[in-house]
Amino acid sequence: xxxxxxxxxxxxxxxxxxxxxxxxxxxxxxxxxxxxxxxxxxxxxxxxxxxxxxxxxxxxxxxxxxxxxxxxxxxxxxxxxxxxxxxxxxxxxxxxxxxxxxxxxxxxxxxxxxxxxxxxxxxxxxxxxxxxxxxxxxxxxxxxxxxxxxxxxxxxxxxxxxxxxxxxxxxxxxxxxxxxxxxxxxxxxxxxxxxxxxxxxxxxxxxxxxxxx
Length: 213
Ligand code: PRP
Ligand code: URA
What we know:
Helix content is 31%, strand content 31%. By secondary structure, the protein is α/β, with parallel strands linked by helices. It has a single domain (8-210), classed as Rossmann fold. The strands form three sheets. Strands 1, 2, 5, 6, 7, 8, 9, 10, 11 and 12 form a ten-stranded mixed β-sheet that branches. Strands 3-4 form a two-stranded antiparallel sheet. It has a two-stranded antiparallel ribbon with strand order 13-14. The radius of gyration is 17 Å and the shape is globular. The chain starts with a strand and ends with a helix. The model has no long low-confidence stretch (mean pLDDT 95). The chain binds 1-O-pyrophosphono-5-O-phosphono-alpha-D-ribofuranose and uracil.
């Protein structure tokens, strides 16, 4: 894992690089795209959960009683940014199936690129949980920053942002506005084009996940 900015973790792993390269390909169809988003999220989850809390539990093996360590079942909440973040939820559930799920709806105005929140429903007690805010694309960073502000306003104290593809503009904006939040991206792309799309990127993640275009 590389660290180019404080609190920003970039996954430089051959398996992730391999899967992201297929994800980017315009000939990759909806089914494979969805599966790849899940698989890459699972790989990223393994690493980004490295510092979550474990608590001692007593386990009786066939031979003796032993003290072991578990992540408390209710300690993790996944919050996808709608729509495209939905594609990442199963990738975390594969490893940690008891995580509850909150939803934040954001869309970018296509002209101004400004994000607008249109929905927010979070599990009770989210204030004390480790929250994984997920969205495959961190472009201008506007959606992620607003979602982080919304979660903090609702009392969340421990949040991790996980995106498949970021660009320096977006990552720097999050680092500037939310320096306390660790950001995990599988790769940092070159730049944004004039329409706010990531280059080389993968196109519109929501459309490719849900087949809307
Ligand atoms: C996309 C993407 C992010 C956002 C990133 O969503 O899924 O949420 O853009 O851009 P930003 O970093 O510049 O804010 P979009 O607004 O297209 O909505 P959708 O997921 O419903 O397609
Ligand atoms: N949202 C996407 O889905 N793709 C981009 O390249 C930028 C924002």
